[in-house]
Specification:
Elements (H helix, E strand, L loop, with lengths): L2 H11 L2 H35 L4 H16 L3 E7 L5 E9 L4 E3 L3 E3 L4 H9 L3 E3 L12 H5 L4 E11 L2 E11 L7 H73 L4 H28 L8 E4 H7 L1 H6 L5 E6 L6 E4 L1 H19 L4 E9 L12 H8 L3 E8 L6 H6 L15 H11 L3 E7 L3 E9 L3
Parallel strand pairs: 9-11
Antiparallel strand pairs: 1-2, 1-7, 2-3, 2-4, 5-6, 6-7, 8-10, 11-12, 12-14, 13-14
Amino acid sequence: MSASTLRAARAATRSPLDLSDERESETSSELERFHRHQAALFALARSNRDEPRTLDERFDEIVETAARTLEVERVGVWLFSEDRTQIEARAYFRLSAGELSRGATLQAADYPAYFKALETNRLIAAHHAATDPRTCEFTESYLRPNSISAMLDSPIVLEGRIMGVICHEHVGVARRWRIDEQVLAASFADVAALAMADWQRERADQEHRELERKMHEAQRLESVGFLTSKIAHDFNNLLLPISGWADLLLLNPADEDNIHEGAGVIKDAARRASALVKELLRYAEQGAPELERISLCESVQQIASLLRMLVPVIIDLQLDTCGQDLPVMGSRIQLQQIALNLVANSAHAIGENPGTIQVSWRQAGAPLSLPADLSEESQKALTSGPVALLEVRDDGCGMDEQTRRSVFTPFFTTKGSGHGLGLAAVAGIVEAHHGAITCRSTPGQGTTFSVYLPMAQ
């Protein structure tokens, strides 16, 4: 009697009650597996949300969860090399030993049928891996040495591109993969793809922050270099009366009137030189900026002499003191850098012609003229409370609409020298303070930069 005939005979002898109990048992088992599968996927999603991890740590967690949930001896995440000639095990878990490893490689040229199948199949369910045409190439080199009888592999797809594969390798007797197990394997591949997407996004954010840091540092060095030439000129002017009166006193050491007058001039020059050095040191403070409650008005007034040094004598620099404290949460050094960069930009716009630069600050009135591409954080910060407004206005050459739209773009410049980082750095600082900056300009009539910052409560 054949096996099929024997099964049919046994089924015929079972009572309806036996069949009902069997179906109920199967349903209960399927329901239990469903809940176990969903719990595993939920745990992976919650883990990534509650505790950010490296990509390798995420892969380690995925392969271990997959092995324990599907009760598979070996599970690995394999990723393609950049030239796609091989895949490398980024995480490989052995259930019986409870061990994680990584680093093994498989050459695509050695297994052409398998790699072709990855490109055309959402899932490779090889119930008999040694005879399945998609996986039989592994028999001698991989399956038999590791006692692997069945494979359940799902490509890891990110933005339409296959980045790798998650492999479930059953050891021992042949195994027929259930449909729900195949669905779960594909879900584990999707979780791995999400982990890669998160990692790529985090890496892009880190690179962006590093670029901003370098851009701000480059701009800072550029502005410090410009200030250095101005300071050298001022120090020469301060040293002239000191050296001149010292020579005069040496020639006439007995002249008491000269001694008294010369000492006064020397003391005044030394006082002004000391004040100049203090302001420069305050601006050039090193270290990471600390956010604190500061007065916008006081911060700008502290660098008044530095602002005047940026402006030729034929340009009238007007600092409009509003009499308001205007408290904001921010970095004093970075907010002062905003004022320095905007004034330097206005001075360049006026050039060698007579002109006026007005720097003013006040509490902004409603409605605010905010840019359309404002970030969600800045939008919320600027619409949930009072806002401080810092404006720098000049009557220089102005700019056309195309130029105006590009002024905050890194490396964009209309100057014959410089790196085009000044206004881009300003925009980055403003955004870091959850603020906004706008530019209004008309060719031949001048430009106004408006910086909006949320006031401290």
